[in-house]
Automatic annotation (TrEMBL):
Its EC number is 3.2.2.31. Its cofactor is [4Fe-4S] cluster. This is Adenine DNA glycosylase. Signal peptide: none annotated. Keywords: 4Fe-4S, DNA damage, DNA repair, Glycosidase, Hydrolase, Iron, Iron-sulfur, Metal-binding. It catalyses: Hydrolyzes free adenine bases from 7,8-dihydro-8-oxoguanine:adenine mismatched double-stranded DNA, leaving an apurinic site. It is an enzyme of class 3 (hydrolase). One of its GO terms (biological process) is mismatch repair. Belongs to the Nth/MutY family. Residues 38-189 form the HhH-GPD domain. It comes from Pirellulimonas nuda.
Amino acid sequence: MDFASLRRRLLGWYAKHARDLPWRQSRDPYRVWLSEVMLQQTQVETVRPYFERFVAAWPTVADLAAAQEQHVLRQWEGLGYYRRARNLHAAAKRVVDEHGGEFPRDVAGLTTLPGVGRYTAGAIASIAYDAPAPIVEANTARLYARLTGLREPVASTAGQRALWAFAEQVVPRRGAGRLNQALMELGALVCTPESPKCDACPIATHCAAFAQQATRVIPVAAKRQTITEVREAAVVVRRGADVLLRQCGPGERWAGLWDFPRFPVEAEGPLFATRELVAGVERLTGVVCDSPRHHDTLRHAVTRFRIRLDCYHATRLGGRVRSTQESPVKWVTVAGLAEAPLSVTGRKIAAGLR
């Protein structure tokens, strides 16, 4: 493949079509890192307001390192994949504590930071420092697969090996950051998953899938993930003007976030045994409530789970709050829910309480 021609055509296209995105306004490694972590498995337009709020609240990595984790999680709320936020905070602390507030300049150093893998490290190193570091993420993986005519699933071991080998070939010694951004932009805007705009692609003449009329079958689809149906209950327990909250512990779906007492249930729909609900609340919190009344049903999906969440209201009868170091429990006012980082469904329940 003529990489010099490919790069020249791609950069010419990027000069005309690059989107005006807030994280592209500087090569500050803090902003590059923040944007790349936020963009993992998340659309650009979803990320834009979160990025702007984060840099307004914490303009530097030192500011973020000094923040309380609960404040970071509250700002992240709604963006999903909350482990990213916890890793973000932990990595900021490490940059300050171990690197004097300066990000490592190479891929090897960057990958020692929590939550920074090979792709994110390559993006930071190339965009912030112009290091000749390759990148492979969702958009470029699709683009590379079509350019090379890859017939292996992109997520397979063989597929990943081939994609990274191509990425190492295409990245130049100088100008790597701009080229990597152009590759990602072309994947996002032109070489799309469905109906790629091959007639508008500046490098279509370099594309094996285009030549083979195989853009509909490349990249090769991965085996579909099995969807698991899950039923859960959430109980809003009141004590006067207060409601009961529990922080999700390590290993739970929303670790670090606060939620109303929530647990899986066995029976169909909202009409299962009251004692199962009462026992669930007491097991998680130590609080004994009266018979919960069904209030609403929410449906949502998380990774491979499709969840039906039946929401209940109840009143405290007795018992004492039982907290653990990993999963504290507390009473808060309804107004105080605005300050607590909640899951998406927890925030919907809280909105109904107002």
